[in-house]
Specification:
The chain is mainly α. The protein has one domain (45-281). It has helices spanning 43-52, 69-88, 90-95, 98-124, 150-172, 179-209, 220-241, 254-281, and strands at 15-22, 25-32, 38-42. Helix 2 packs antiparallel against helix 8, helix 6 runs antiparallel to helix 7 and helix 7 (220-241) packs antiparallel against helix 8.
């Protein structure tokens, strides 16, 4: 018998038949209910279905759902990713005023931060009951401590990463910084922000994969987290390539830095677009 339990209330006399997860985190659990029927709880699916359940009748127009928190998360991530992708294009960076290029990245990072926080709110307000359609009567929470949940860690760490990107992109608009200031206020937050995105994307991958590895491209949620993980890896490579050589004051590799940012942004962009049909897919 497993000692791990999912962060959800189940009906009395329910029996846990199967548990999946990584380490202390449970990401999927199957129950045998008192009436003999089976019910499966899956972390991401439960969260997405639960918050959209009341409005699911309107999901015949999945691309226009401004009443749903998940829709705003998707739209804001799309906007932030698009701005990062545009800012990394050589023709844009070479022909546009550097201050405008800086604003492009900074506004993109702000959209990331808002989307990341809304994703955190979505996570901490996931339904408490096994049946996502059963109302718990609680108010919407804006902050919560839920360390038993892998999605809480993913959303929290990602939010930290977005704030670090805010610091990095805002600092990058100051063209008068010394080499040491650029390393401390531009490169370091970018590097640690990229690390945070790597950690968060890995946790999201583990949540959907219900283990360390799973190949399931026909599953929409799997494709989303795979795209995000690939994008996070590209962002990480970009941050490494953007290291400033102390001897010359030049970046380690400008082409790799720009390409990594562009590829990472496109990965997150496509993943964000897929968040919208994911609401109806479940």
């Amino acid at each position: 018998m497993t000692t791990r339990s999912a962060p959800v209330r189940v009906p009395d006399e329910s029996v846990v038949e199967q548990t999946h997860g990584v380490g202390p985190f449970v990401t999927r659990q199957r129950y045998r209910l008192a009436d003999g029927s089976d019910r499966t709880w899956s972390s991401r699916r439960h969260r997405k279905v639960g918050l959209a359940h009341e409005q699911r009748r309107s999901l015949n127009r999945p691309w226009w759902q401004p009443r749903l928190l998940g829709w705003w998360i998707a739209v804001l991530f799309v906007g932030g990713s698009a701005l990062f992708a545009i800012g990394a294009l050589p023709w844009y960076a070479d022909n546009i005023d550097p201050r405008i290029v800086g604003v492009t990245f900074f506004v993109g990072s702000i959209l990331f931060t808002v989307a990341g926080y809304l994703q955190y709110v979505e996570t901490i307000n996931a339904p408490l009951e096994l049946d996502p359609g059963k109302r718990s009567g609680r108010r919407t929470r804006l902050f919560a401590w839920q360390p038993r949940r892998i999605d809480w860690w993913a959303a929290s760490v990602q939010s930290i990463g977005t704030v670090l990107f805010n610091i990095s992109t805002l600092s990058a608009m100051n063209l008068q910084f010394t080499l040491q200031q650029q390393e401390r206020l531009v490169w370091a937050p970018d590097m640690f922000g990229s690390v945070a995105f790597m950690i968060a994307s890995t946790l999201a991958w583990l949540e959907v994969s219900h283990g360390w590895w799973r190949w399931n491209p026909q599953d929409l949620s799997w494709r989303i987290v795979a795209l995000n993980l690939g994008g996070a890896i590209a962002f990480q490579l970009s941050a490494i390539a953007a290291f400033i050589r102390p001897a010359t004051g030049e970046l380690l590799s400008v082409p790799v830095a720009n390409l990594g940012t562009f590829v990472g942004a496109v990965g997150f962009l496509i993943g964000a677009v897929l968040l919208i049909p994911e609401m109806a897919d479940h």
